[in-house]
Structures are given as structure tokens and as C-alpha cells.
Design brief:
The chain is 33% helix and 22% strand. The chain is globular and about 50 Å long. The protein has a seven-stranded mixed sheet with strand order 3-2-1-4-5-6-7. The protein has a single domain, classed as Formyl transferase, N-terminal domain (Rossmann fold), CATH 3.40.50. It has 189 residues and is of the alpha/beta class.
Amino acid sequence: MTQKPKHNILRGLTSPFFMRLGVMCSGNGSNFENIVHSCPKHEVVLMVYNKKKAKAKRRADLLDIPSCYSKDEDEIIALFHAYNIDMIVMAGWMRIVTKKFCDEFPGRIINLHPSLLPKYKGLHAVEQALKAGETETGCSVHFVNEHLDSGAVIRQQTVPILPGDDVESLTRAIQQAEHQLLPLVINAL
């Protein structure tokens, strides 16, 4: 029997609660695979992707995790209910979800974003940080609401912007930080 996650346990680093996770991806799926390997107390039971060429699909196949292509929010809601998902993790999901979606899973959706929110919401966060001349950026995990990257921030990790960094090198550095941060948050929920 699964127990619902407790959101006030974030001061600790491990959770006594087993969770059935649903992961939403649009691209490569490296954070999805990292969740599978780095969150052994929990089980990823479904991965939903919304781009037909998403490499995350291949990762799900190799990991023997059910996956489904869908752009239909009602279908995604039904799938997550059918799989009895405790927590939804948006890991590279490149679409805004509606209030209806958020209301179906209150307090049970988190998102990984490549900036230190509230700075640089939405697309091209890495480019925005570089263009602004920032000396540091990073990544954030936050609860999801119907507004773009506006839910309560759970935890952040800072990444320095080094002299000579470009979008590619900084993106790699942020992805390394994401691979540390996201499992830490999931394991603490």
C-alpha cells in the first residue's frame, strides 16, 4: 500500500514514504533515467512524453518502464489516476499545465527548472542568464501551479557561470546540478 507524500519533511534528506512516481518528459530523458537510478525507495511506474522523437521513450524501453505518448491533458490525467501515481515529476516537460491538471493532483506535482527561480522563467533560461551577465545561475525544483514556473520553490542549487561559458557548457553544468538536486528533493518528499 502506498502512502501519500508529506511535503513538510523537506528539512530531512530521506523520506520514510514509498511513492509511485509518474514522470513527464519532452526530450532526452536524462533526468528521468537519473530518477530511476537515484531514487531506489520509490518506483517510477509511468513516463509520459509529448514529443514523438523524445529520446526519453528509448530510455523507458531500456529500463522496462511503461511509457505513453500524449499531448492530451485529459488522457494524461486519466493515465496518472489509472497508475495510482503519488507524485508527478516534470523533468524536461516543455508544456504549461492547466489549473484543471494541477487541481487533479494538488501538491503532488513538482518541476525541475534550469534557473534560480524566480529569475528566468520559461524557455531559454540559460541564454537569459548569460545575456544578463549573471555570475551564477543554477536549477530549481518547485511545486507546480497553473502559472509558468511560479509555484513554491522547494530547493535550489547554484552553478557558477565561468569565464568563457557559453550556452552549451553552462547547460551541461546545470544538468549535472539537476542530476544531484532532483533526486535529493524526491527522496525528501
